[in-house]
């Protein structure tokens, strides 16, 4: 058969026949060059899917139980509750709300997005609110500790009604910054499966969304990070010139919480920033680069999601006040006996911390 006859036969094919012709074609059979910008295929192996299911399931269990206990313990503190404890209470609530979204991501990791577009938007907003409220609350804690330790303005930082208004403001700002998520993330078809991801779509929407992303990087991470570095820099310098062991103990939990947040969220934000730079053509978008960024997004997102269950573990291992109050709750509920604290050598620390209003967790 001649080439002209082959071409004529191809042009006479019906739509269904064309579909059958290319049905078994895979992008993975084509290896693009460095300058190629053709779409790439990216699929997770069964091992990765199982690993994600295990990680997200464990994170859900640990975060739900752990943050519920944190909310219970801090709420039980009553008079000795410090301003920082109130901030950490709100942080636990944010992590608890985010943990409730993990079962949906578990199902998504197993196969595809089987829920509605509405659920995709709501769960994405809850994820963003958790992120914004988390870093904004940590920035508030850094300012609170800066004022209390560097400037010794306890009269301001210990007024609960002021701290309550600040927390309300944080939640409102986090909600406002998360509203654009209602527009972009959608459940749509990609590589023959339904996914829940930001569907930028038209060129005008792409420009708008890139601006929103830069706002997220600036307001949602870099500015609060600079505030924390500034405040904790002066706070550490002040602590080095004081012999107050109580203040040093109070800062251990705070430093651990801030460090955990940065370790968990900074790689993910850095990867998102690289993806943004690729969309604005600062980084050339090739199949290889797209594959690397998609892989990095998957790995760093796991680390970011795990953050919701880390803080309760830090409180339990580092926070003396948290442990003592937790044991006090167990004693009053009849789960353990009163001599438990003295038996394990915690009686004196329990007495000293239970009446202390400045020690945080």
TrEMBL record:
Keyword Ribonucleoprotein among UniProt keywords: no
G-protein coupled receptors family 1 profile domain segment(s): 66-315
Keyword Disulfide bond: yes
Primary location class: membrane
Alphabetical GO biological process terms: calcium-mediated signaling; immune response; neutrophil chemotaxis; positive regulation of cytosolic calcium ion concentration
GO cellular component: external side of plasma membrane
Bilayer-spanning residue ranges: 47-74, 86-109, 129-150, 162-183, 218-240, 252-268, 298-318
InterPro entries noted in UniProt: CCR1-9-like (IPR050119), Chemokine_CXCR_1/2 (IPR000174), GPCR_Rhodpsn (IPR000276), GPCR_Rhodpsn_7TM (IPR017452)
Membrane topology: Multi-pass membrane protein
Superkingdom: Eukaryota
A GO term, aspect molecular function: C-C chemokine binding
Subcellular location as annotated: Cell membrane
Keywords assigned: Cell membrane, Chemotaxis, Disulfide bond, G-protein coupled receptor, Glycoprotein, Membrane, Phosphoprotein, Receptor, Transducer, Transmembrane, Transmembrane helix
Annotated function: Receptor for interleukin-8 which is a powerful neutrophil chemotactic factor. Binding of IL-8 to the receptor causes activation of neutrophils. This response is mediated via a G-protein that activates a phosphatidylinositol-calcium second messenger system. Binds to IL-8 with high affinity. Also binds with high affinity to CXCL3, GRO/MGSA and NAP-2.
Subunit (UniProt): Interacts with IL8. Interacts with GNAI2.
PANTHER family xref list: C-X-C CHEMOKINE RECEPTOR TYPE 2, CELL ADHESION MOLECULE
Family stated for the protein in its record: Belongs to the G-protein coupled receptor 1 family.
Name recorded for this polypeptide: C-X-C chemokine receptor type 2
The species this protein was found in: Acipenser ruthenus
């Amino acid at each position: 058969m001649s080439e002209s006859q082959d071409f004529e036969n191809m042009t006479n094919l019906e739509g269904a026949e064309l579909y059958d012709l290319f049905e078994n074609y895979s992008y993975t059979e084509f290896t693009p060059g460095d300058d190629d910008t053709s779409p790439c295929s990216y699929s997770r192996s069964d091992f990765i899917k199982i690993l994600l299911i295990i990680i997200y399931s464990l994170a859900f269990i640990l975060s739900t139980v752990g943050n519920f206990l944190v909310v219970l313990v801090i709420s039980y503190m009553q008079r000795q509750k410090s301003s920082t404890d109130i901030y950490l209470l709100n942080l636990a609530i944010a992590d608890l709300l985010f943990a409730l979204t993990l079962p949906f991501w578990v199902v998504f990791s197993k196969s595809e997005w089987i829920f509605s577009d509405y659920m995709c938007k709501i769960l994405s907003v809850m994820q963003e609110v958790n992120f914004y409220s988390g870093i904004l609350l940590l920035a508030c804690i850094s300012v609170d500790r800066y004022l209390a330790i560097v400037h010794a303005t306890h009269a301001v930082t210990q007024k609960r009604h002021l701290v309550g208004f600040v927390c309300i403001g944080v939640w409102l700002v986090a909600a406002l910054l998360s509203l654009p998520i209602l527009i972009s993330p959608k459940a749509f078809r990609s590589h023959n499966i339904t996914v829940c991801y930001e569907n930028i779509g038209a060129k005008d929407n792409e420009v708008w969304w890139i601006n929103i992303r830069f706002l997220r990087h600036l307001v949602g991470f870099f500015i609060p990070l600079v505030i924390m570095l500034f405040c904790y820099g002066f706070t550490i310098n002040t602590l080095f010139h004081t012999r107050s062991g109580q203040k040093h103990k109070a800062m251990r939990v705070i430093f651990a919480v801030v460090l955990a947040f940065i370790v968990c969220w900074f790689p993910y934000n850095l990867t998102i920033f690289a993806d943004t730079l690729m969309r604005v053509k600062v980084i050339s978008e090739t199949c290889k680069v797209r594959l690397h960024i998609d892989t990095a997004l998957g790995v760093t997102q796991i680390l970011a999601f795990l953050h919701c269950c880390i803080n309760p573990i830090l409180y339990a291992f580092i926070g003396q006040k948290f442990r003592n109050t937790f044991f006090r709750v167990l004693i009053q509920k009849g789960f353990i006996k009163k001599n438990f604290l003295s038996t394990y050598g915690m009686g004196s620390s329990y007495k000293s911390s239970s009446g202390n209003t400045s020690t945080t967790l």
